[in-house]
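Morning!

As promised:
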Amino acid sequence: MIRPQPKPGASDDTDLREQEALLVRECIRQMGRSLEPDRAIREMLHLLSELLGLNRGRVVLPDPARGDLAIRYAYGLTEDEMRRGRYAQGEGITGRVMQSGEPLLVQDIDREPAYLARAVARTTLPQETVSFIALPIEVDGRVGGVLGVHRLRSRHRRLADDMAILGTVATLIGQILQVNRLVSERTANLEDENRRLRQALEQSQQTPIMHGIVGRSPLLARALRQLEQVAGSDAGVLLLGESGTGKELFAQALHRMSARAAQSFVKVNCAAIPDTLFEAELFGHEKGAFTGAVQARAGRFEQADGGTLFLDEIGDLPLNLQVKLLRVLQEQVIERVGSQREIRVDVRIVAATHRDLQKLVAEGRFRADLFYRLNVIPIQLPSLRERPEDIKHLVLHFLEQLNASHGRQVALQPGAMASLVAYPWPGNIRQLYNVLERVVLLAEGSQVEEAAVDYALVTEAQGQPVDVPPRRIADAVEPAGRTPPAQSAVREWRSVGGEEGAAIRAALSAANGNKSRAAQALGLTLRQLNYRIAKLGLR
Ligand SMILES: Nc1ncnc2c1ncn2[C@@H]1O[C@H](COP(=O)(O)OP(=O)(O)OP(=O)(O)O)[C@@H](O)[C@H]1O
């Protein structure tokens, strides 16, 4: 067999092609190690040097912490040289390539002023003419870094070939960086998610919750015990407590615990029904009973037959309607408006009010007989002020709900929680929920800081007639970054280390006893200043 004789120089060419092919093959093999970019990229730079004589390869990447560029991977550079290799945007050859996204070739580094020789000193390089080649590395469709190598100018390989192979290597390095960025992003997301789930799990294990009612304070526990005791009977229950203390929630829990749980729970808000519609609403009406009664309709009593009727805001029921309600409660029969037919109903009555019914009775505004009928088992629900230890549990419970319903992953920093616990919550749990919802919706990151909560509380307080502890107001008049007008006075006031009295006196004396001006100087409202004066017993 006759082997074809290579032309002169062809064997050199073949060797070079083989080396190139070997380099590309090996570099592609390194792609399998994408998750270890240090090893994979260093090995690629090693092959460039070993097989093609493109030496001291380095990959320069942006350093987000310092806002410049730094050598991240290298072959043939000492640690010191790597450390020295930092470039501002647009600085030197590397900075320019990063900025323009175009490759640059310096034929002779000794004749190019833009070449900085910062990482590798000229003295450590060969005496002959040295070139420097820098190429952009594309990551996610953008210039994500720069690949740079030294090259002896007089060599047997053509420059165009070197440029082509370097382009291929830069692309492969870009792929490795892209995979890594993706993996670290996903890992960070998963870690975040994990942390949040762990927190949620801890919270749900810690949050004492019975029948959907959160809290473990003694006053709440007592109310819950009473609820459980009476759940089995048909006795009427009167739930007493301020607005937003959970009266409706308790009524629902009572219904669910009772033997009537499979039947309906029907709510009537006595304060919301106009007098003229009250009878029709409660007892129903026949077709044509009054204008607009186009068809017969069952009232709330009938709808609740066999179940529970929750009469909310019973204290707001006008006297003439109290008589009608009493009659039904006594006889357990109703007559629809426009009909004389008696319909027997079997309902358990749970009533609720935020008013002092006994006082209303004494004033002749609530019938005593109806009061005794409803007040068989009174259960007093504590306000949030009386059970501050429950606030934290409620906050964690609502936070979990709000995160789920708004697709957020918000957590509160300790200071933020402390602010929520310190707030007086005149509107009780409903108000707490509303404020938290606002905080979750407005949260910019996953961690809510104290200042953000304080700001929400101040906004809340401004819309509510409520005395907020002044320290909170002073802290939170403006969100971080903006300067409240009276900040210096506030700082002074705070710097007296709790001696509020002295600060208030000083402000009052500076304002010649004018409280409005003193309040302004302290960064408080007049109402808050009055509150502090009264609380501290100042004259
Ligand atoms: N202990 C609690 N645990 C969890 N959520 C609660 C608790 N108490 C009240 N809530 C929630 O707070 C909100 C207000 O409660 P609810 O409507 O029962 O109060 P209310 O006393 O009936 O108020 P109002 O007198 O103004 O009608 C509801 O969303 C309720 O689910």
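Residues 213-215, 241, 243-249, 312, 354, 394, 429-430, 433 surround adenosine-5'-triphosphate (CB under 6 Å).

Hope this helps with the figure draft.
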